[in-house]
Amino acid sequence: MNHRVPALTLALMAAFTSMASQAQGLRVSPSIGASRANQPAPPSGPRQADYIVAVVNSEPITNNEVRARMVRVEQQLAQQGGALPPRDLLARQVLERLIGEKAQLQLARETGVRVDDATVDMAEQNVARQNQIDVAELRRRLQADGLSVTQFRDELRNQLLLTRLRDREVEPRVKVNDLEVDQFIQEQQGSNDLATLELNLAQILVPVPEGANEAQVMALQARAQRALERARAGEDFARLVREYSDAPGAAASGGQMGLRPADRYPQLFINATLSLPEGGISGVVRSGAGFHILKVVEKRQAGMPGVSVTQSRARHILLRPGPQLSESAARERLADFRKRILAGTADFAQLARENSQDASARNGGDLGWANPGLFVPEFEDVLSDLQPGQISEPLVSRFGVHLIQLMERRQATLSQREQREIARNLVREKKLDEAYSSWAQEVRGRAYVEFREPPQ
Predict the structure, then answer these.
(1) 351 to each of 216, 346, 387, 388, how far by Cα in Å?
(2) Domains and CATH numbers, the chain
(3) What is the model's pTM?
């Protein structure tokens, strides 16, 4: 089984990234979001004596920690085809990353962020499920790779601590207003990517008959120029079409040729209007048919930011842990509900109406049709793996503990309002990334860091 180590490594990288990215849109970089299980086995031969390279507040970072992380980063860059920086530079970058993680973990513990064993159990099950093996097999493979179960679970706990801390600290910093959404949409629609560009052009056509002599051509060109001057002076374009244009059906349509992909217009028209905004008017354009004046009535990127998506309709039961109900007890109660539903002795909708602690309870837990990205990632990840009719194991999100059933899926075309919501989510994702970077720098700046011997 020579393929076992890299295959498991790649799968675990994906699993950790999915599990760790619990803040909506917050992408955790591989060197933060992956576990030590992603590391290949250390090279054979005598191992260098370990020593402390830095102290973060009161906790040390050792040379072997830096070396192990460097091996992982080098492997990831090699898999992605990226160029490796000089080794001394990579060592400094990895050390800084470890310092940032250590400072965040300390902040999590100081401010009361906790992850219980049952939550780590669920995370371990999630990693096994994403690798399409059971937990026993996962542990066997990890131990064969030189990583103990205790070490692996400690890594899981740390990732969950970091995720919960980031959710709490970064999410409240990000607000998206309508102006930002409008600006994003305008930027997308202002793109001139011909593969997705749609145009509605109106034209005034002054035709030039075949065999026209030079004097006739000059007179017709002067006629077109007069129409252009009046259009640019602000006169109604449709009225100018009726007065000047001889194109078939032009008077009835105001000269408009209809919204269509840009590649369905003559290249001459695209060249004349590509740089114009909506409402812009081209100069006089000569073609084999005559002289054209073109107005950009509408200009947009087709399907911004998406036209057709796969929607899911799900229902859930939500229990919110508190003084009267621990997270473990909530998970056990939902596990019992699941067993009863699968046995046919209880009805999901009825249990939701009687127990779910959110507004969906009155509808039997029905969450309605949802577009991708509507739910928080920890919920969405589990939902995406379900088949219609399947019920998940209990899962924990920032809102509580859920039991989810996928009812059905469908392909749907997004309305303008739905496209706007997707645009809002994209803006929010970008702002979350920026807010996370700023917050991480603040946490790093508050930490006392003492550098010892440089890593090797």
Answers:
(1) 84, 7, 21, 19
(2) 4-175+442-451 (1.10.4030.10), 197-301 (3.10.50.40), 308-413 (3.10.50.40)
(3) 0.52
